[in-house]
Write a structure and sequence with these properties.
The chain is mainly beta. It has one helix at residues 4-18, and strands at 25-36, 51-55, 58-64, 83-92, 95-103. It has one domain (24-122): Beta Barrel (OB fold (Dihydrolipoamide Acetyltransferase, E2P)). The chain contains 1 helix and 5 strands. The termini are far apart.
């Protein structure tokens, strides 16, 4: 006979799989390093300027709730310097899915940025 607990766990697992599978590894209220996956972290899977984060020594491209008014090539932009960010979300495979991505005040903004708005990337 199957217990109610076993049946409930099986139902929960089926719901997870039906809704996109494994919810991933949760990340709660962490301060991590972020920057451009292509320009600063040299991630081969980054096709263009994309936010990436480093969590526990591993790097992940970011999907989800990202800054909308951030200038990539500003002196403090994601292509010119790494930034500290306060994040929440979960790691799913090789991506970090952000539900919160708050840029902290930058320190050491470069006077001469690596990239400017006119620069072309390889």
């Amino acid at each position: 006979m199957i217990s109610r607990r076993t049946l409930a766990m099986g139902t929960f697992a089926a719901l997870l799989l039906g809704c996109g599978g494994d919810p991933g590894i949760p990340v709660h209220d962490r301060t991590v390093t972020a920057g451009c996956g292509m320009c600063l972290f040299s991630m081969k899977e980054a096709k263009g300027c994309m936010w990436a984060v480093e969590i526990d020594g591993a790097r992940y491209l970011v999907n989800g709730a990202l800054p909308r008014d951030h200038e990539n090539h500003a002196p403090d932009g994601m292509c010119n310097m790494t930034r500290q960010v306060q994040v929440e979300g979960h790691i799913r495979g090789d991506r970090f899915v952000a539900t919160r991505f708050d840029l902290l005040d930058p320190a050491g903004v470069p006077e001469k940025p690596k990239f400017t708005p006119d620069d072309q990337h390889p």
